User: What shape does this take?
Amino acid sequence: MKHPVPEVPLGLLAKNENLNEDMVDILDHLQSLYVPMTEKQLASGGNEKVPVETVFFGGDQLTEERARNVQLARSDGTTTKERLGGVWPKNEDWHAIRIAYKVVIDILRKGNSVGDWGTYASNAIISGCGTALGDVLGDNYDKIREFFQTETDAFIIAASLSYFGMDKITDRPTKNCIPDYLKNASVVAKREWFHNQVYSMLEIYVMDSMVTLEEHSHMVEEFKCRDPECQRTYKYEKCRVRHEQKCHSLFAEDDQTTSEKDQKTTSESEDHIFNNGCLHLSLGLLLRDAKDSVKEGDGDRLVRVWKFLTFVYRLEGANKYALAGLRMRCLVF
Assistant: This one.
């Protein structure tokens, strides 16, 4: 027989997280009511109250940052209680995933790609889902997330059709077909064959996409002067070339022309449609893995997901969340 889960209202605190003194009161309130304490005998002969276990205090990145700064300000306390050490500030995973959706969609959704078939913006227009082009963190977040997940499913189907050599889902596979002996094999053998096919698909369509992701980086590239004794750097390559010619009489036009030709040749030889599809597939599966790990309570898998999200946050300029991911990695290891 199922029993109802007891619900305990925690009440409301009329405090403002933006004020340091109010944040101190919030942490002190949480520690005094919800952190179990025990008496510990000191070497000097006295007793000190120490937390039996640390209690997590979650919120968005700003809340976590303010709470951590308050603890740093109280780090000169003589006891753990005075240092507010019974509370552990953390980023709530649901909020980090919401920011991850914004970062990923900003990578995939470009205003000038509406006319390019298969892109996020084009799919949103063709499917009549105009809300998918709105603000990710606004009121349409759930609709945008639903559209993105549906689009990810479509890319999974497209990748499967390509892998098995099929034009539509009703066709018979012409590549990587199921062996005849497997029809009468055990369930374990069938599962092993299926997992091997999934592994091969991931190698082809997902694992190399992080290289493509680096092209979407918003980090500023610097061009260092090629004179050995000069330490100046420039934001634009033409400014560097002008400086080298004017100040150092250094002419590297041939190298620059060759580099531009190589970049143009490489760009023309790449399949950008395939790269975009693989990038969408890898990022979509990453977000799906993050959500599923939270739902299943799989902390180890979530830590692995955070490793990739840290890189994605950094690329799109979400530096505070990238720092939070790096801090979590340092605490775990």
Remarks:
- The radius of gyration is 27 Å.
- The first helix runs from residue 20 to 34.
